Write a sequence for this structure.
């Protein structure tokens, strides 16, 4: 449990960063190292409720898990066979 007694805060690192005039923040090096992020690595930014999440972008089809022949649709990866199947169902 966190020092303030809130269980939701138990996983927080306690590192505070300020947003600069261009809307940027710096991810501390210890966090980048812990998760294996390097220079120029892509980072996916998503929202879950009131929480902003940073993660590695998904490089697999959201429907079947294939990793080849992917296209992006509304920020998600979808493979050609699933696109074909979705197109036939929508027709």
């Amino acid at each position: 449990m966190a020092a303030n007694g809130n269980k939701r805060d138990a996983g927080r690192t306690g590192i505070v960063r300020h947003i600069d005039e261009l809307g940027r923040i710096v991810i501390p090096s210890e966090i980048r190292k812990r998760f294996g992020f390097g220079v120029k690595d892509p980072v996916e930014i998503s929202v879950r409720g009131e929480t902003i999440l940073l993660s590695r972008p998904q490089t697999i089809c959201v429907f079947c898990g294939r990793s080849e022949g992917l296209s992006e649709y509304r920020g998600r990866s979808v493979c050609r066979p699933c696109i074909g199947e979705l197109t036939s169902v929508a027709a």
In short: The longest strand covers residues 44-48.
